[in-house]
Amino acid sequence: MDKTERNQLKLEENVLNNSDLILNVEKPVSSVPWKDSLKQILACCIAHSLVIQAGINMSFSAILLPQLDEKKSSIHISKSEASWIASIVAIALPLGSFIIGPLMDKFGRKKLCICTTIPFAVSWIMHASAKNVWHLYLARIIAGFSGGLTTVALVYVSEVTHPNYRTMLLSLNSVFVSFGILFTCVLGLWFRWRVMAIINCFCVLITLVMLWFIPESPQWEIVFKNDSTAAAKSLKWLYSDQKIFENQYERLLDTTSRKRRRSSIKGTDEESTRLLKIKKELSIYKEPIVYKPFCILLIIFVFQQLSCGYVIIFYAVDLFREIGGHFEKGLDEFVALVLLGSIRFIMAIISALISKRVGRRPLFFISGLGMCLTSLVAGVYMYFTVMPPDELAKLSIQKDKTDNIALYCVLGYVCFSSLGYLVIPWTLIGELLPVKVRGVLGGVMISIAYILMFFTVKIFPFVLDLIKIQCVFYVMSLVNVCGVIFIFFFLPETLGKTFNDIEGYFKREG
């Protein structure tokens, strides 16, 4: 290739890059009325029904372990075996999240949603028929692996939704996880764990049947299969209005054709060798539209786990007792779990409903500042409760042994965390990461998040042995302040933005 041809290719690439801005001006995102979005909502709810099982996995050990500890239990376990039954799910989760990326890119989002139900059903059958603790170990490992596979639901929803509804529909992921937690806690009030396993297996089969009737992701059809006919068929199912369908189909084709032309321009001067091909594939991860959102997501997940939102849910009863909660009038550990599950479920619904109008950043700010305030108040209150009565008298403070102020602060902390910190980071995976790496990096990111969750939950009891409980709440308050500052400076708003708009933001930042 001579110098003249090289200059011509560079000129063409510059025109293509500038066409992004032209496209956004000439073809703004069309609005979609509620009545024309019902099919999208239905498809997203069916896909999200997979993550109900992930929520059930998180809370099932809270029901299983106390029943195994009973004298009449058919399987008897030691304290060490109980800890493995509870934590082994978190260990297996990253494996499923890591391998789902390449699989969903190769075989499709819908097919992998369907396949994910199979190991879930197997795990519940093994639970119901378990004869010894090793059967439970294997069942929990399969359940955790299956929970990691549910990453495919997030990616599917991000690719079938209109930009105006994507934020809200992605937020349903946490709603369905919270429903799974609440569902398990409620069933635990009346049923034995084997019966619950059978009920959960039937729920998985219902999800399997429903998944057959939703369309494949049009983004996957056009990007990975280059099948515009199949993409049009999927979009036609999602958009019953002809004008909206044509607008979205044209936008999808335009965006994809521009990316392919850039790819062909960049690859014109390369030799078709295996080494250069691998180098070209790896070079994708050096682009600012890939590594910048990945780094932002990674730091947000670190703040999420250090905020101890999940720790409070895992250690709810022990934490209530540690801070001086008084269990009266029928409030036991099972009722406490139902209470926390109800709070998280309600707040997740509120977050999903208002996210269509409020956006990610304001919800993050409200959530982070609310968590900061409630944890600070809880820490200060607990500091005064451990002070000697004569010192409190000097400060004109009377100590009431029957109040539950710290407990109410913890419940408030759960409310605010469920509004943003426990909800939004998971949905951002489907929004910030580009389509071409969303499957792989989405799986990697969720694997990292689950590993962080495992370590924070695992070390929390040891942290309480090293420092006082009020110091833990001080640290939580500081972490939330730092998280809000980071989000203010680095997280872009995604409400109503197309994937092209989001990529354009990181290109400009790069």
- Uncertain regions spanning at least 5 consecutive residues: 1-29, 265-271
Shape call = globular
Number of strands: 0
Going by helix content, strand content and strand pairing, the class is mainly alpha
Helix content range? over 70%
Please compute the radius of gyration using only Cα atoms: 25 Å
* Total DSSP helices: 24
**Percent in strands:** under 5%
Between the first and last Cα atoms, what is the distance in angstroms? 29 Å
Order of helices and strands: HHHHHHHHHHHHHHHHHHHHHHHH
- Mean pLDDT across all residues, rounded? 76
Structure, described:
The chain is mostly helical. 80% of the residues lie in helices and 0% in strands. It is built from 24 helices and no strands. The protein has helices spanning 3-26, 38-48, 50-68, 79-107, 109-128, 133-149, 151-160, 163-187, 193-211, 218-223, 228-238, 242-267, 274-283, 288-306, 309-314, 316-322, 333-358, 360-385, 389-394, 405-419, 424-432, 435-466, 469-490, 499-509. α14 packs antiparallel against α21. The protein is globular and about 65 Å long.
